[in-house]
Specification:
This protein has one domain. It starts with 6 loop residues before the first strand and ends with a strand. By secondary structure, the protein is mainly β. The protein contains 1 helix and 5 strands; from the N terminus they run ββββαβ. The longest helix is centred in the C-terminal third of the chain and has 7 residues. This is DUF951 domain-containing protein.
Length: about 60
């Protein structure tokens, strides 16, 4: 599935045009950071799972 520091693709791109996000916090809420401009967004796990399209890169172990 997905884990901390994975790079994911969301269904809609960010306003800066980038569609890659890094997961920087996981819990009941998930915090993601845009790989293009660094903008941070926090959303509930349920919203994140609805809006995530796929995992692009797994985090290095």
């Amino acid at each position: 599935m997905y884990d901390l520091h994975d790079i994911v693709m969301m269904k809609k791109p960010h306003a800066c045009g980038e569609n890659r996000w890094e997961i920087i916090r996981m819990g009941a809420d998930i915090k993601i950071s845009c790989c293009g401009c660094g903008h941070i967004v926090m959303m509930s796990r349920r919203d994140f799972e609805k809006r995530m399209k796929k995992v692009l890169e797994k985090a290095a172990e």
